[in-house]
Amino acid sequence: MIKILKITLVLGLFVGSAGCGKELDTQPQQSVLDITTIDQLQSQLYGAYSALKNVNYYGGTSGTASAWSSLGDIMGDDFIEALESLGNWRQLAEWRYPSDDGAIAGAYQAAYVVIGRANDVLRFTSRFESGSTEGAAKQIKAQALALRAHAHFDLMRCFAQSLNRNSDSLGVTYMTSINPDDPFAVLPTRNTVEECYDQFYDDLDEALALFREAGNPSKADLSIIDSNVVHCIKARAGLYNGSFSDAIQSASIVIGNKPLATPAEWPGIWDNTSKKELLWVIPSDASLRPGFPNNGPTAAYRVSNAMSDIVFSSAGGIRNANSAIRKNQAGVGQISRTLMFKYEGTKNFNVFRTAEMYLIRAEAKFRTGDVTALDDLNELREQRGVAEGTETGTDLFNAIILERRIELLGEGHRWFDIKRTTKTVTKPECGTADGSLQNICTVASDSRSWIWPIPITQIILNPNLAQNPGY
Fold first, then answer.
1. What's the pLDDT score for residue 219?
2. In the chain, what's the furthest Cα-to-Cα distance?
3. How far is CA 281 from each of CA 274, 294, 435, rounded to the nearest angstrom?
4. Which residues of 103-123 are buried (b: 16+ CB within 10 A; e: fewer)?
5. Are the beta carbons of 340 and 294 closer than 8 angstroms?
6. Banded model confidence at residue 334, pLDDT cuts 50, 70, 90
7. Torsions phi, psi of 70, nearest 5?
8. By C-alpha distance, which of 203, 293, 230, 243 is closest to 2?
9. CA-CA distance, 51 to 216, in Å (whole number)?
């Protein structure tokens, strides 16, 4: 078990507010002094949720990271920097980020703000876990544990040196506590990847146990975490770290509880008129812009011609509906473009959908030799208006990955999928001659860029944080 996880807040690690755009603040975030009522505890939990709306986490604005909403798309090979771009994301999209990159530092900070606020909630839950507040307190505690685990896993996807379940390479600093009386008493180190996963699963398993005891909270607006969302987090992590049996089990629970949207229902997922197959949503509150870099008529990044051809072929089925993606959009230089509209303007961000669970289960089944992998793929195809297939072997694996690209296009997955499968990427249509401003279009499989640098400002403040190789 982990021996070094009970670590305290280090200068600069948890700073700013949900909307703060500063790279670094030289003062620590003020911890909650005291919570004396269950309503105050619930309010503090809402504060942890609100931190997910940071422009460097799920939100977005010009030049910010949008790290876990849009960045995974513009760093992948299915989106191309358009002539409309002002170059605000080029350094990230061309994989040439240095250790002092402001957007990288912003993403790092944004995730730890979520973690810090979740830990503040967890400091006080024991006060209310008896009597009339017991059930509510356990639900709050479960949500805070899941938020903490989710944000740590997102950090690992970017900053960990490996994603394998039992790797002894460096992961991230898994923060589980803070000493508000002396927040600088301990300068934390980075935990190994295995240690991070050990605590990650401890958090999620405890959350599930609490939900079993207290029941799930109301999910009227889909903005809060329940047991289904915990299983979504476990399923995604299991696919990444090679725990395929666990991924199958968790995805199956979600699939059994939340069916896929039908062809008629699917377009409504993107215009905020339908809750079908949605499991966890970050609400827009008329301000969240998760698709700022690559959505809408003035997007800086357009869908590549190659991906457009796929989506608008029979393989796309209903997914070329005008509510989500549009072809032949006029642009600079009279170049016709295909543009994404899933997250145009202020929109909710759909963190988890049942479709992803089908794709996770199909891939995990394939990797474990389960012959029903094709059944999952074909069930998703049927609900997207695509003909069933008969693929086997490598063809089946390639078909599953292609289906992920089509179904999850514009939802922030592609870069991470390339990273965890092949580490080979070549962007098509490179250079202005092909209607693109991007000139660096390949990244080698051994490039340092597959792992982000720990922000140099954090290392200066805390020399116990080891830097990733090559930075």
1. 78
2. 69
3. 12, 19, 34
4. bbbbbbbbbbbbbbbbbbbbb
5. yes
6. confident
7. -105, -30
8. 203
9. 22
User: Cα 448 from chain centroid?
Assistant: 21
Q: Which amino acid is at 313?
A: S
What lies within 8 Å, CB to CB, of 431 at 6+ separation is: 438, 439
Q: State the angle between helix axes of 38-50 and 134-159 in degrees (0 to 180), rounded to the nearest 10.
A: 20
Q: Report d(CA 106, CA 78) in Å as an integer.
A: 24
Among candidate residues 437, 130, 82, the one with its CA nearest the CA of residue 293: 82
Q: pLDDT tens digits, residue range 231-244? A: 999 999 999 999 99
Q: Is 302 helix (H, G, I), strand (E, B) or coil?
A: strand
Residues 6+ positions from 305 with CB-CB distance below 8 Å? 338, 428, 429
User: Can you tell me the distance from the alpha carbon of 470 to that of 452, in angstroms, rounded to the nearest whole number?
Assistant: 10
**435 falls in which pLDDT band (50, 70, 90)?**
confident
What is the spatial distance between Cα 216 and Cα 219, in angstroms, rounded to a whole number?
Answer: 8
Query: Is the CB of residue 345 less than 8 Å from the CB of residue 289?
Result: yes
Q: What is the 3-state secondary structure (H, E, C) of 216-244?
A: CCCCCCCCCCCHHHHHHHHHHHHHHHCCH
The model's confidence at residue 434, banded by pLDDT at 50, 70 and 90, is confident
Strands (E), 304-413: 325-330, 336-340, 349-353
Cα–Cα dist 270/44, whole Å: 30
User: What residue has token string 């940071």?
Assistant: 54
Residue ranges of alpha helices (H) inside 85-192 are 90-93, 102-124, 134-159
Query: Where does residue 37 rank: exposed (0-12), middle (13-18), buried (19+ CB within 10 A)?
Result: exposed
Q: Is 317 within 8 Å of 309 (Cβ atoms)?
A: no
CATH class of 38-83+93-461: mainly alpha
Asked if residues 377 and 403 have their Cβ atoms less than 8 Å apart, the reply is yes
CB contact set of 299 (below 8 Å; sequence gap of 6+): 82, 84, 293, 339, 340
How long, in residues, is the chain? 471
DSSP 3-state assignment of 414?
Answer: helix
DSSP 8-state assignment for residue 49: H
